[in-house]
Structure formats: structure tokens, C-alpha cells
UniProtKB/TrEMBL annotation:
Assigned EC number: 6.3.1.-
GS catalytic domain location: 120-456
Pfam family, one: Gln-synt_C
Keywords assigned by UniProt, alphabetized: ATP-binding, Ligase, Nitrogen fixation, Nucleotide-binding
Annotated protein name in UniProt: Glutamine synthetase family protein
InterPro entries: Gln_synt_N, Gln_synt_N_sf, Gln_synth/guanido_kin_cat_dom, Gln_synth_cat_dom
One term of GO molecular function: ligase activity
Superkingdom per UniProt: Bacteria
UniProt organism field: Mesorhizobium cantuariense
Residues annotated as domain GS beta-grasp: 17-115
UniProt xrefs under SUPFAM superfamilies: Glutamine synthetase, N-terminal domain, Glutamine synthetase/guanido kinase
Presence of the UniProt keyword Hydrolase in the record: no
KW Kinase (keyword) present: no
Length: 456
């Protein structure tokens, strides 16, 4: 939960005029920052303790439409307040916004001041606590991919998101020459995130024209989720200030590579010094604990896929031959696999879950992976032998759910997630998934009009 700016430093910066605005942000169900811009002096004097927001923010869809049917918030309950409690350990300066600092807030019940159970940050905190009770720290890292466009969001909207000008005209995966053309945004993104206390390891071109990948240094799960959402928000703001646009859609174009968010995860001792997955005498140098953790994630992958792929569009990414997985299995360093073992033979050994798209909410995704991993440990599951070959062509491997409807059905049947997250919390997100499907089912798409306006 590390920012780069203490509260005392903030008070001094406010007094000197270096900071005049503080963003107090919660994370909504879609993984976006939502909150208030405070006059910095008022935040220092009072709002650093708590502020308030409407509880519909955790009961609304991506269009900010209040969704009927939630137990936690509704018109019949009057859409009251919840408490936004700044976690001052997350306080940081935001270099790309003038004289601005940002803090992540926990969402608390207005009456009891307990964590609101269905808030994404509370869901992850609960799973992190489960790890801590066993003497574990979960280290996570999420790789983010996105497309960079020589467009503004306004110009893309006016083009109806068709025929967009990508930052590069052809694929520049790992190519230095072509990605140099994109450095106006990418250099700022690396350096200004670093200055905001989000350590960046590298960026690179990906397998689509104008597609980028940025890699953040691994961290404890909650800290990494905070970094993830600030990075996504900041990337869009930096791009927009440069007259560009960024998209984290899983699949913005049928013929191009999708945007993933691969998640690396491992367990370490409570002091953060001993890797609990590394055993040089074990098969694949993966300890018994690590094998059980991985086996749990494999066993329950279908049940938690929604937490990695929450939208209709998310499932368009799962196509053979696109570096996106289609099968649930693990392999040693094989990019056709749903799960890949990385760092074999070193203390950095870890599992990489390749199922998630860049549209996921990291708090929910990390929580689901932890819950499944702990289930594997508790059940003492045995890890199957690693798959070898092209998983796309393997017919007998279990498949990742192909649609949001499929994923929602398996989510609703998950006894493991009901127990780990809580019945009311799981029901809240099942309702979210069903609403997304309902909204899609009743809409007329451009594809339908193109195909049927004249020919039906």
C-alpha cells in the first residue's frame, strides 16, 4: 500500500503552493477511479479523515446507469451514502496533472464504518487477510496491453470507432525503430508513472499495429492493484494531453490482436524474504505449495473466468492463433497455454495466468486467483503434468468459457467463490454479469444492420 508522498509532505506542499488539488478516489466495479477533486487545503484540514459518495457508484453499469435488482443499493433504499476513507499510505503526487496529488480510498458502510463487502478493494483485502493469517504474502504483477491511436477520443467518436489511425501502421512487436515513433506518449508514461511511485520496468511494442505493453514492477497484491488502476487512468490522461487516444478494450478490431492483462502471482513468507514456490528438488522446481496453488487455479478457472473477462467484448479475444488462450491447462513457458510457469529454477518462479484481458478489474481478478489458489492448498490438489505442444489444436483440453453467458452460468454455480467471497458479494457480481448480458441482448449492433437491413 505504498504511495510516494507522506501526509506530512502533503501538508508542506500545500502550504508552499506546490499542491493545490487532491484527488480522493475509490475504485468502481469496472476498475475505474471515481471520486472528488478537493481543494488541497480543505483535504489537509478535514477530508483526509473521510468524505462521502453515493452508494449507486457500486451498483451502476459502465454507462453510470443505476441498475435495478441489487440488494446493496436501489431506488427503494434511496441510494444513500457510503464513506470514502482515504488510505493515506497510497498518497502520491501525480506528475501529469498540475499541482495534484491522489489518494485511494476504502469504501465503508455509512453506519458501521466497516469495509463495504462488495467494494472491489474490500474483496481483495479479505483475500489478502486470508493469506496473512497463514503467514503468506501474495506478490502479483499485471502486464497491461493497449492500443495507441493518432486520434483523440473525440475524433474516434466522430468516426464511429471505424478506420482509426493507429500510432504505427504495422505490427512492431519488440521492434525498436517503429516504437520510437510512439515515444512521445510512452516515454512520458514510463517516467511519470515512476515519479508517481509506480515503478515501471519496461515498455515494448506488441503484436498489433500501434499496440503497446507496459510492465510494472511486482508488488504485494493490494499495492499492485492500486498501481494497475492508477496506471490505466493516467495512461489515458497522458495520451489525451498529447492529442492521442488509448484503448484497453479486449478486442477493438476482429482482425487484430486483443489486449491482455497477464497476471503473475506467487507466495512468499510473511517477511517477504523467502520464496515459497521455489524448491530446486521438486518437479519443475515448483514446491508442493506452489503446485497445489496452481492446481487450484486450474480446477476453478472456469468458475472465476468472469473476474478476468467481465464484458461481452472480453470473449471476442479468445481466438486460436492470436496469443490469447482458449484452453485451461498449464505449460512450461508456452504462450498457447492458459497458465504458464515462469522463472523456473529461480526464486522468481511464479504462475502467469494468461486468461485476463486489459478490461478486467485487478482487485476482483487478484482476489479470485488467491481464492482459487488457497482452495488448491486446502484441498491438497495434485498438479497435472504440463502440456506440451500447440494448445489451440488440442481437442481434449477443457476450454475457457466462450461467452459471457457461459462464464456467468459457471460463476453462479461456484461453491468455492461463494465460500471465499461471501454469498452476498458473489450474488452482487452475478447480478452485474447478468445485467451486462441483458443490455447486450436487447441492443441492435452495426453488424446486424450491415448484414440484415437489406437482405433479410
Amino acid at each position: 500500500m505504498a504511495g510516494n508522498f507522506s501526509f506530512d509532505q502533503l501538508k508542506k506542499a500545500v502550504s508552499s503552493g506546490e499542491i493545490d488539488t487532491v484527488l480522493a478516489c475509490i475504485v468502481d466495479m469496472q476498475g475505474r477511479l471515481a471520486g472528488k477533486r478537493f481543494l488541497a487545503q480543505y483535504f489537509v484540514d478535514s477530508a483526509h479523515d473521510e468524505t462521502h459518495g453515493c452508494n449507486y457508484l457500486l451498483a451502476a453499469d459502465i454507462d453510470m446507469e443505476p441498475v435495478p435488482g441489487y440488494k446493496a443499493a436501489s431506488w427503494s433504499k434511496g441510494y444513500g451514502d457510503f464513506v470514502m476513507k482515504p488510505d493515506l499510505a497510497t498518497l502520491r503526487r501525480i506528475p501529469w496533472l498540475e499541482k495534484t496529488a491522489l489518494v485511494i480510498c476504502d469504501v465503508l458502510d455509512h453506519h458501521t464504518h466497516d469495509d463495504l463487502p462488495h467494494s472491489p478493494r474490500a474483496i481483495l483485502k479479505k483475500q489478502v487477510k486470508r493469506l496473512s493469517e497463514r503467514g503468506y504474502i501474495g506478490y502479483f504483477a499485471s502486464e497491461l496491453e493497449f492500443y495507441l491511436f493518432n486520434e483523440t477520443y473525440d475524433s474516434a467518436r466522430k468516426k464511429h470507432w471505424q478506420g482509426l489511425d493507429t500510432a504505427s501502421p504495422y505490427i512492431g512487436d519488440y521492434q525498436i525503430g517503429i516504437t520510437t515513433k510512439e515515444e512521445g506518449v510512452m516515454r512520458r508514461l514510463r517516467n511519470e508513472m515512476e515519479a508517481a511511485g509506480i515503478p515501471i520496468e519496461n515498455s515494448k511494442g506488441e503484436w498489433g499495429p500501434g499496440q503497446e505493453e507496459i510492465n510494472v514492477r511486482y508488488a504485494e497484491a493490494l499495492d499492485m492493484a492500486d498501481r494497475h488502476v492508477i496506471l490505466k487512468n493516467g495512461a489515458k490522461e497522458i495520451a489525451e494531453s498529447e492529442g492521442k487516444a488509448i484503448s484497453f478494450m479486449s478486442k477493438y478490431n476482429y482482425g487484430l490482436a486483443g489486449n491482455s492483462s497477464h497476471i503473475h502471482n506467487s507466495l512468499w513468507s510473511a517477511d517477504g524474504k523467502t520464496p515459497l514456490f521455489f524448491d530446486k528438488k521438486a518437479d519443475w522446481t515448483l514446491s508442493t505449495l506452489g503446485q497445489q496453488w496452481a492446481a487450484g487455479q486450474l480446477k476453478y478457472a472456469k468458475e472465476f473466468t468472469w473476474f478476468l473477462a467481465p464484458y461481452i467484448n472480453s470473449y471476442k479475444r479468445f481466438q486460436a492463433g492470436t496469443f490469447a488462450p482458449t484452453k485451461i491447462m498449464w505449460s512450461e513457458d508456452n504462450r498457447t497455454a492458459g497458465f504458464r510457469l515462469c522463472g523456473e529454477g529461480t526464486k522468481g518462479i511464479r504462475m502467469e495466468c494468461r486468461i485476463g484481458g486489459a478490461d478486467l478489474n485487478p482487485y476482483l481478478a487478484f482476489a479470485a486467483l488467491i481464492a482459487a489458489g488457497l482452495a488448491g492448498i486446502d484441498e491438497k490438489l495434485e498438479l497435472q503434468k504440463p502440456f506440451v505442444g500447440d494448445a489451440y489444436q488440442a481437442s481434449r483440453l477443457p476450454e475457457i468459457p466462450k461467452t459471457l453467458r457461459d462464464a456467468t452460468e459457471t460463476l453462479a454455480k461456484s461453491k468455492m467463490l461463494k465460500q471465499a467471497l461471501g454469498e452476498d458479494v458473489l450474488e452482487h457480481y452475478i447480478h452485474t454479469a447478468k445485467w451486462e448480458q441483458f443490455e447486450y441482448d436487447r441492443r441492435i449492433t452495426d453488424w446486424e444492420l450491415h448484414r440484415g437491413f437489406e437482405r433479410y
